[in-house]
Amino acid sequence: MGAPDTAETFVLVHGAWHGGWGWRPAAARLEAAGHAVHAPTSPGLAPGDDPTGVGLADAVDALVAYVERHDLRNVALVGHSWGGFLLSAAAPRLADRIVRLVYINAFVPLAGESMVSLIPERAAAMYAQRAAASVDNTTTVPLELWKAVFMQDAVAEVQELVHSLLTPHPFATLTDPAADVDYAALGVPLAYVGSREDLAMVAADAPWPPPFAERLPGRTFTEIGGSHASILTRPAEVADALLALMDVR
């Protein structure tokens, strides 16, 4: 496939317990459409990384450094789940390099919020207990919770395979508070892509679109199918949604 008339550089930011590998199915479709794609892995989550002491600021700094080191321009910065925290903090520092921000089944934090403050108390307590029992302050997601809430639209064999690839996550990145971000002042198009069957982010009786989408002033909202893990279970829909946003300025 030839290069499109207008090409973007996609920087895809993964969620908790994942790495850049989680974006491969969707990235392949974006690349096939002629776009450059980068999917870095956050500190503490790559093979051989030491997660001890890694906090939210370290993850944000690493994302900013990656974009600057590779001198990326015309960037569509896309974040999944916990990756929304990195998008929100990195965007003001990359203002001259980005052309849009896209949150996919992602948190859109306000000042002082952490990921554990935005999830049910029972889940937050469970992740804290697992971190306290670890030797390096990392936390994990139980297989049964993964199957029932995060990736319920996949068969058991796929659920178990993906779960086996997950990496214990630096817990401080889930408890550190977000900085204050004026989303309206970022000066770039804002978009939210939400999966209708996302049980991790949207309760069955919650309003639609997802409440986090409402935090983005003037945002474009796109509904897709699939679970919270739609970047893996519905990669074609995710890629199509990202490509469609290129026409919305």
Automatic annotation (TrEMBL):
Record's keyword terms, sorted: Hydrolase
SUPFAM superfamilies: alpha/beta-Hydrolases
Domain spans labelled AB hydrolase-1: 10-241
Keyword Nucleotide-binding included in the entry's annotation: no
MF terms in GO: hydrolase activity
Record flagged with keyword Zinc: no
PANTHER family: AB HYDROLASE-1 DOMAIN-CONTAINING PROTEIN-RELATED, ESTERASE_LIPASE_THIOESTERASE DOMAIN-CONTAINING PROTEIN
Official protein name in the record: Alpha/beta fold hydrolase
Source organism of this protein record: Sinomonas puerhi
